[in-house]
Each structure stands twice: as C-alpha cells, then as structure tokens.
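Key idea: predict the complex, not the pieces.
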Amino acid sequence: MRSGENPAVKSRHGGACGHRAELVNSLLNPGLKRLAQCVRIFLLKCRDLFNCTNTVGESIMTTRREFIRNAAVFSAGAALYGCGNPPEGPFSKNERDCLIAMAEQIIPADKIYGGATDAGVINYIENWVTRYWPETLPLYKKGVESVQRASRRMHSKDFQDLDFATQTRFMEAMEGAKLDAKDWSISPRAFFDEILIRSMQGFYGSPRHGGNKNFMSYRMLGMDMPVVTGQNRYGGNS
Amino acid sequence: MASEIVHPKTEVVVVGAGAGGGIVAKQLAVRGVKCILLERGDWPIYDENSNDELINQRTHAIRAIHGPDTRKFPRAVSDGKGGVKAADPWWPDHTVVAACVGSGTVTYGAMGWRFMPQDFRLKSTYGAIEGSALEDWPISYDDIEPYYEQAEYEVGVSGDMSTNPYAPPRKKPFPMPAFEYNWEDENIVIPAIKRLGLHPFPIPMLRNSVRYNGRAACIRNHTCCGYMCPCDAKNGTQNTVIPVALKTGNCQLRTNSFAYEVVMEGRRAVGVKYFDLDKNSHFQPADAVVIAASATETARLMFLSKSKLFPDGLGNQNDMLGRCIHSHIYCGAWGLFDRDVERELGPGATVAFSDLNHIPSKNIFAGVLCSEFYMLPWARSKVIPPNTPRWGIGHKQHMIKNYRRMIRIVGPVQEIPMYESRVGIEPRLKDWFGLPVYRAMPGGKKHPLSLEQTKIMTETAAAVLKEAGAKTVCKEGEKVYLNYGSVGGQHQAGSCRMGNDPKKSVVDPQCKVWDTDNVWIGDGSVHVSNGGFNPVLTIMALAFRTGENVAKSLGKGGAA
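Result:
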C-alpha cells in the first residue's frame, strides 16, 4: 500500500495502471464502492487483530462480483470470529516473528517501496505450510528452531530481535553454510533456500496466495496489470 | 470397488484427448467411424484460469492449473537408500503434461514448427553416433508433408517463411499471415541477428493473427505461455478438432476417465479398462485401440497392460518399450541492457533463426533459437546476472532497475536418444487408483554430443545479445542438465519409437504396435528423434496420418 500511495511511484508509472483502475472504479456505483472500501478496511483490521491468514482481505475491491463474494465471507467470518478466540496458525508467535524477519531480509523495505513484511509474505508462507504443501511444515519448524538456537548462542537473542545488519550477516552465513553445525537439525543452506524461494514467490507472485498485498511488487515494477481484456475476470477462483 | 461397468461395444477407443488423441478422434469421426475419446481430466474452463504465476502450466510453483494433481499422481524417484519416494512436485523433471481436454495445447506457447527434412534423417546425415540409440525415421519429410499442411489448416498456424532460407519445403502458404515482431525484437534483436549473418524470421504460431475458424485474433496478452487464452485465439485441439469430432455425432468424449489397461486377446485388443472419478472400473469394448496419453503415460499404460502374448507389457516383446525417451535441452542467454528495452507487449517470442538447425559440414544439429515469451516477476526474480546479489536490497534494486532491461534468447536443442533413458513403472509407489507410478529408470543420461550442441546454442544466443548491445550477458545452458537422465518435460517423446525393424522399435511405420492387429499409438511416443523444434505440430501431423490409417484398417479409409 505504501508504494501505491507514494507520489514518486504515481508520477513514474501511474499512467496505464491508474487509468485502468479508474475505468473499473467508474463502472461501480459510488455508494457501493464506499461500502466495499469500508468492508475491506474492516477485513484487514480483523486479519491483523486475529493474526488471521485468510487471504480474502488482501484482494483489491474492484468489482461488484468480488464485493458480493467478500461480503458473504465477511459475514461468515464475523460469525466465526465473534467469540473472540484467535484461530490457531501453524506457527507460534515467536516462530512467526522469526520468519517475518527472515523474509524481510530477503526483500527489505526501502524508502519508497515496501518489503516482504508490508507485502504479507508471511501469509503466503502460512498458506504454503497449511493449504498447499503441509508436508513442508516440519522443515520450517526445525529450521526456525535451529535459527533461534544458533542466534541465542551467538548473540544471546532471538533472530527477530537482532539488529538488521546482524540479521543480514546471519543470513549470509546460513547461505554459505558457515554456521556451527551443532545448532542445526537440518541443513542451514536448505532452509535458507526454502525461505528465499518462498519469500520471492510471496512478494512477486499473485496476491491470491496471501503475499504481494495490493499487487505491491507489480506496482513497484510498474507492471500493466491486471489485464482487463477478453475473458479475464478479477479474482478467478482461489 | 464396485463390479465392473461394461459399456456397449464401439469401433475405436482413443486414450487421451490431447494434441494427438483429439486429432485421431476427429479423423475417425469424420470418416464415419464410431469412437470413444477417453480423457483423464476435464474440460478446461477459463474462469479457473487466473493469470497467476504460481499456479499455471509453465512454472507450476504451487501446482499446475490443469493438473494432473501431483499429490494423487506422484512420480517415483530414488530416495538414495535403495528405495523410492514421491518426487517433489516442483521437481523440474516431473514431466507434467496437462490433464484436461486439449492437454498441453490449451496452455502451450503454441509454436507450430515443421521439422526439417534432415530431422527425419539424422543418422544418414551425420553418421552413426557412438553410445546412442540414434536411428533414421522410417518415414521421410515427404511422407509427412501433406499432414503438416492439414494440421496447419485445420488447427490453424500463422506464419511466413519467406525470410528463412532453411525453411522446409511446403506446397501451400500458411493459412494466416505471420505475427508482427515485438518492438524489442524488431529494433534490437533482429538487426543484431542480421549483422552476424544469420537469418531471422517470424515464429510460426498455432495462434490466430487474424480471425480464423470462427474465433478472434490474438490480443497480445502477457499471460499466454502456460495459461489459457482470454479470447480463445490460441489454437488447441480443444477448440478446433475435438468440437468437429463431437459435431459429427460419431465421437463421444468421456472426461474424468483414466485408462489403466488395454485388454488383449492374443494379437487383438478387445477394449480398454478405465476408472472414473469414483474409482469405479469400466470396460469399453472396441474393434481397435489408439493410445495417445503422452510419451510417459502411454508407455506406463502399455507396461500395465500385461497379457499372455505380452507378459512384460504390451509392445515390450523386444524390451524396447519406454526406451529412448527424450525431450529437449533448453538453453540460451539473457542480455542485460543499459536502457529499457522491453515494451511489454505479450506474449513475446516473435522472432527465430534456424541457422543452427543443420550444418552437416560442421556436425551441428542443434536447434532453433527464439526470443522468449513474456515472463512475470517471480520467474524474472530468479534471473541473476553476474555481480547481482540473490537477495536483499541489492536484488530488489536490480529488479526495479532492470525489469524492462532484459532480453532472453532461448531454444530447444535436438537431443540424441539414449537406449538407457527409459520410462518404467514403480510397483513400490502407487497412485490414487492404486496403480504403479511412472519412474524414470536409473542409468539414463545425456549424450556428450547433446551437451556440445547445447554449448553451441548458448554461445550463439550470447553472441547475438552482445551484438545487440547488451552490457552483460549471462549464459544458461548445459550445466543445468548434466545430472538429468531421462527427462520428459512437456516435449517428451520417443518412448514407443517407430521403426522398420520390430526388434528395435515398438510401432511399425504406420504407428501400429508390432505383433498386434489393432493397437495404435497416436502421440509423441513414436518420434524416433525430436527435432530441434517444439514438437507439437509433428505430433499433430502424425496423428492426422495415424487417424487415417486406423480408419483404413476398419475399411473406412475414404476421404473425409
């Protein structure tokens, strides 16, 4: 979102993207659009509040159809979460924070564009280990455990609590397999590669999977997306 | 499992509704032959498509959109301890061919190449190659030329070979004009190709450059190769020949039907057994059977079809079934420019040059080099030029700065078939139906000469990019493939090779399985070698021919 609102981005790449978004938005009833925006913001807030990995809140509210779909999910979701118990994710808070910090190392935020944390790469990773390839969850559990063990022994802190530069050096050592083997129950290089590929997919892949929030990386690259010709629809199935 | 459902007899069962099977069914149906077309998948639906880089048929980072479901239908690989395990689905060697009506022709990049006459005569042009299973095809370019023409007209190819001096001879022009070049190809790549004395020309495409066959012209979408077409301008069997077959009333398409045995009585096939989605077993009796399930799956079905006369699998009486599977080594180079060069018009891949396909005097039989299809950001993020970090702020800055500054030239290298590269079945690992799965047999490897050809292609691609003004050129090539043995991939071919000698082949020159009266093969399995081109038009042309042969064998050989 930060990238989308940045004036520098608009002036450089705003042309085609902005025009298409306006075109689509102008087709919507303004009242409906405002309502849709409210719902979307509320959904995002719900997600943050409950640590929820549901990807529905991520999608851009652009069409009537999508609005109706999300409205239905919203009411179902409100009923589900009404009791106030946050849903169980695959990771503990500590594990989650560690993975967020590692992904941010792969794609850090800069002065203009958001990074892995802003793009919600962690949502993609959570989808990966729950919905797409649950077989890989043990790898993540062992990997994070090893990272924390090594980090605590070397720096007396969890990985996410290290300063950015120390984290970078740690990641470089992981990539080069230059860490003390006794801390590791899996290969540090294999776990690094796993985080690398999943972070890149979460940041540069389609927002349908939880990352690349609001097409953040597409906007960063100035891509002319989504295509609105032919049979293309916003969303598709998920 | 409930008791078997037995259907009324039909004339022909065709297994697989892809590039080959769809065409065979059409050839039969228009000649008045009653046929049943079995397809393991379903009709592809555009709304299931998503312009999603992580779920499509090309990268399948999460999964392939049109299947097969790799969890239900795993591939076996060695676990390094003497046993086997299911391959990771994103394993590059996974040999996924789409499981839907139309199969790969729904989502392919749609290059519609004819092989060159020399591609059918590799052994006699270049001499025997030691340590390989290289043979000439039992048929020549002239035998297949009329069927190439039929494929170009009935499926639909846009092209113009007037600037390609190596173009294979043709009797009729293409049915549609060629696509125009993309800006970067016309202004940057082509002048460089010409300055090097090479001969650029537009890539023939199984895609409508103008309205054709009642469907619209291409709208230059980004997400083309790997995706369904948003305006149905890409020509596959699902929107051309299969509807024609169904319209005759002679062909019935059964989706979600997974064939698992060709039932033999002596030399004759009497029908095909298949599972539906509820795992019910069906038996479809027939007078003839055509298998067109892709090079890996056709061989697997034949291994599973054991009978008294064929105890080691149908067509395996001389231990040839599944052998010589090969595909293409893909190689080329990326060029990084110091200014924006890409104008983002999809689908990319507009120019090619065929200079490296056949130079007998230099022993070069590499392949065609083309510009690349449009690649979305994740795929692009994996391209790391020298001195660029793989991750971190440096990588992000590289992406922002260079996203439009890269051009790729790439192509398929003619691979030399190897006797040891073989499709096998692995009884220790079962699929969802409880059938032994496909395994690339150990011992398969690339011939050193294939890797040499790869090097020539890579160097030439790099030279073109350098000449075009690229500041950095990164070559991609032979190293990646060194460890791969029996790759399949989407260009998989050769597992049931065609030949004059029953001892050295699986099917005869008419594509009928040796020692059978009525079993035919209608896909790329029969290729003796796979050319230096994308093979789909050759698969299609052979299927037109095989369909005609099958109809003739049933006494209905008249023209359609």
